[in-house]
Design brief:
The protein is mainly α. The chain contains 16 helices and two strands. It has a two-stranded antiparallel sheet.
């Protein structure tokens, strides 16, 4: 369904209307043309460029995927910069980078036409801006980075919209938790209006277009009308929503949602039909539980206070994880899709906590074993990614 949109833009050199019957899926009765289309626009540009040399279907599909590939490259570059300012030890930096970039499901979303890849890049940019402002105080550079990251997210995927209100809270706390001598209310508003102005400049056209085309609907979320009108039987939104509410009204249904989301968050490819080897799920689960547990114990022992500036990032990261997971769960009441990729925007905060947890553990390990264990941890994650790639290649290539 997603490739239909960049192909339409490539063929018509214009953005599609959500009610265009030519792009509406025959089963679901709607298209993705009502959603943010920045990834599709970029994909269509790559397709146009490649068509100069060849217009074969295979070449155009590969060209369309370049948006996700380059988003993956940008994501890793931002990760490296995050590690440089958020972590002190070289070993911790590498553990964090390997965890975030070589997570199986993350590596997979950077290989095909989707919105998740660019959404991950935008989330990384926003998180980098938080850490930049956390370390240096409110400044123009951090504000511009935040505005660009939020703008990309707003034009890419509804899953990343949650970063806007969280960034608003962060910005306010970052100001009031600074030393009184460092506060400048005029500069606070100046940078704040800079963020708002840049976001309006970059994204305004998208929301104005929605208002004009979709009867004043700011977010163009009238897709249910098309689904009810054109969708087949069980694919109609009302039917899927009823089934979702019935499923999530029971304890077994919630357990099923948690299990499916957790497994596909780690890695489950294709239409969630190509799993990893079972032992890999166990290893990743152990890393998550041990890392978060160790980090949690450290936080509890320090008996921190909520208004201390050094814990601002902890609260923002924790809030991000909670809100992203909650949004995914709430969305499932209207359309039961327990997919781990919906909570991937929370991966960086999760991996940061895991890294901190392992760092605290390694600090109490005898020095002669410490570096060996760190190398083993890094190599295990690299080998698991390689194994994941072999599974993908075996399914799609060999």
């Amino acid at each position: 369904m997603r490739y239909v949109i960049p192909k339409y833009i490539y063929n018509n050199f214009s953005l599609p209307n959500a009610n265009d019957i030519s792009i509406i899926n025959s089963h679901y009765g709607f298209s993705y043309a009502n959603q943010p289309m920045l990834p599709y626009i970029i994909s269509a540009m790559f397709m146009k460029f490649v068509s100069i040399f060849t217009a074969s279907d295979y070449a155009l599909i590969i060209a369309a995927r370049m948006t996700s590939v380059l988003a993956g490259l940008g994501y890793v570059i931002v990760l490296i910069n995050i590690s440089e300012i958020a972590l002190k030890k070289i070993s911790s930096k590498w553990i964090f980078i390997v965890l975030c970039s070589m997570w199986p499901q993350v590596a997979f979303i950077f290989t095909y036409v989707n919105c998740d890849g660019l959404a991950m890049f935008s989330a990384a940019m926003v998180i980098y801006s938080w850490i930049h402002i956390y370390n240096k105080g409110i400044n123009k550079t951090g504000s511009i980075i935040m505005a660009i990251g939020l703008s990309i997210g707003l034009l890419t995927y509804l899953n990343t919209y949650i970063f806007a209100p969280i960034s608003f809270l962060f910005y306010i706390y970052a100001y009031f938790l600074q030393n009184k001598n460092d506060r400048d209310i005029k500069y606070f508003f100046k940078c704040g209006f800079l963020i708002i102005g840049l976001i309006l400049l970059f994204t305004g056209w998208h929301f104005i277009r929605n208002i004009v085309l979709y009867d004043g609907n700011f977010f163009a979320q009238g897709v249910n009308n098309y689904g009810e009108l054109y969708g087949e039987g069980n694919f109609k939104p009302s039917v899927r929503s009823a089934k979702a509410k019935e499923m999530l009204s029971t304890l077994s249904g919630i357990r099923s949602w948690v299990n499916s989301t957790a497994i596909s968050f780690i890695g489950e490819f294709g239409y969630m039909s190509i799993p990893l080897h079972k032992v890999m799920y166990g290893i990743y689960a152990a890393e998550i539980i041990f890392g978060l547990g160790s980090c949690g114990i450290c936080v509890i022992k320090k008996k921190f206070k909520i208004f201390r500036i050094q814990y601002l990032l902890f609260y923002i990261f924790a809030l991000t994880i909670i809100m992203v997971i909650t949004m995914s769960f709430m969305y499932s009441f209207s359309d039961y899709q327990p997919q781990g990729r919906y909570i991937l925007p929370a991966l960086i905060p999760i991996c940061y906590f895991i890294t901190v947890g392992f760092k605290k553990f390694f600090d109490i390990v005898p020095k002669k074993f410490r570096y060996l264990l760190q190398i083993v941890l890094i190599l295990v994650n690299i080998f698991m990614l390689i194994d994941s790639l072999l599974i993908i290649m075996k399914t799609y290539i060999w």
